[in-house]
Design brief:
It is a single chain. This protein is an alpha/beta fold and 331 residues long. The protein has two domains: 2-117 and 296-328, Quinone Oxidoreductase, Chain A, domain 1 (Alpha-Beta Complex); 131-270, 3-Layer(aba) Sandwich (Rossmann fold), CATH 3.40.50.720. It is built from eleven helices and 15 strands. Strands 3, 4, 5, 6, 7, 14 and 15 form a seven-stranded mixed β-sheet that branches. It has a six-stranded parallel β-sheet with strand order 10-9-8-11-12-13, sandwiched between helices. The radius of gyration is 20 Å and the shape is globular. The two termini are 18 Å apart. The mean pLDDT is 95.
Length: 331
């Protein structure tokens, strides 16, 4: 058996390569794993875009099939955790970095990495959500568990036009929170208002160095940007508020002081989606399955083929797209 997959390569002679290849099943089964799935859909996340464009050293083993997300049907599971025919979701766990991922028609994975597809979501909808939406849900869950109530004030979402931001806005709005969307794409205002944002903030106002303590504006925030943006978000967060940090689009640095944390009691909470526990994954997906408005899927989703992944990744890296891109791996 052979199947189609995107394969990334790198060597000293030819450098980086990215192409659609026909791969033999035995090459796939040489990967560490115990569960073979036939992939139906994957998606393009920021980390996938970095790998596909070789803009950052995401890939650590070569050659590599990228794709940190996948949904598909179990063909065989050697430890009995899943049965043939079960529908399962993959998010993270180093796939596309150290282990072959799901921008392919088949994937060989560890059953511990998989969760069941929620019964009230379709396979396609799960990849509209993908790692971006699942990460957004982890952030929103962190805010809820912290005790923030919708009537306590405004919640800020940075990187609002991207995958994490889009779903964070939609989920927060559905749960009754008042959301301000920070974006560099002011032309996307209608898109963001339809998701549920009540106001739009031009992101440039957050990107420059500023005072360590500023006017209190947000009771909570979801930040995917990092660097000066995260520093300014913390400086503007209300007393006893919380900032859920899950991204570094502007940079990995954090040019701040301890002032927001010791003078206003602000909590900066890091959110990791790659190695999150099974229970945290189930809780995040349950939140999405029960509280994400069905209209959101049509509003934010775009469908592409494996052949279109590289072009989409390049556009993502230059900020030319919004929403979520689902990859139909069989087209």
């Amino acid at each position: 058996m052979s199947f189609n997959a995107i394969l990334l390569g790198k060597d000293e002679t030819t450098g980086f390569s990215c192409s659609l290849k026909n791969i033999n099943k035995q090459q796939l089964l040489a990967q560490e794993g115990d569960t073979l799935i036939q992939v139906q859909y994957s998606s393009i996340n920021y980390k996938d875009a970095l790998a596909l464009t070789n803009k950052s050293p995401i890939v650590r083993h070569w050659p590599m099939v990228p794709g940190i997300d996948g949904v598909g049907v179990v063909i065989e599971c050697h430890n009995g955790r899943y049965q043939k025919g079960d529908m399962v979701i993959l998010n993270g766990w180093g796939c596309g970095e150290t282990h072959w991922g799901c921008l392919a028609q088949y994937a060989y994975l560890k059953s511990d990495w998989l969760i069941p597809l929620p019964s009230n979501l379709t396979a396609y909808q799960s990849m509209v959500i993908g790692t971006a939406g699942y990460t957004a849900a982890l952030c929103v869950k962190r805010i809820i568990d912290f005790g923030v109530k919708p009537d306590q004030g405004m919640v800020l979402v940075t990187g609002a036009s991207g995958g994490v931001g889009s779903i964070a806005i939609a989920l927060l709005a559905k749960l009754g929170y008042q959301v301000t969307a920070s974006t560099s794409k002011i032309d996307d205002a209608d898109y963001l208002h339809q998701l549920g944002a009540v106001s739009i903030l031009e992101s440039q106002t957050l990107k420059e160095p500023n005072k360590p303590l500023q006017k209190e504006r947000w009771i909570a925030a979801v930040d995917v940007v990092g660097s000066h943006t995260l520093a300014n978000v913390c400086a503007q967060t209300q007393y006893n508020g919380i900032v859920a940090s899950c991204g570094l689009a502007q940079g990995m640095d954090f040019p701040s002081t301890v002032a927001p944390f010791i003078l206003r009691g602000v909590t900066l909470s890091g959110v990791d989606s790659v190695m999150a526990s099974y229970d945290k994954r189930i809780a995040a997906w349950d939140l999405l399955a029960h509280h994400l408005d069905g209209k959101v899927f049509d509003h934010i989703s775009n469908t592409i083929t494996l052949n279109e992944c590289v072009d989409t990744a390049n556009k993502m890296m230059t900020g030319q797209i919004k929403g979520r891109f689902v990859v139909d791996v069989n087209q």
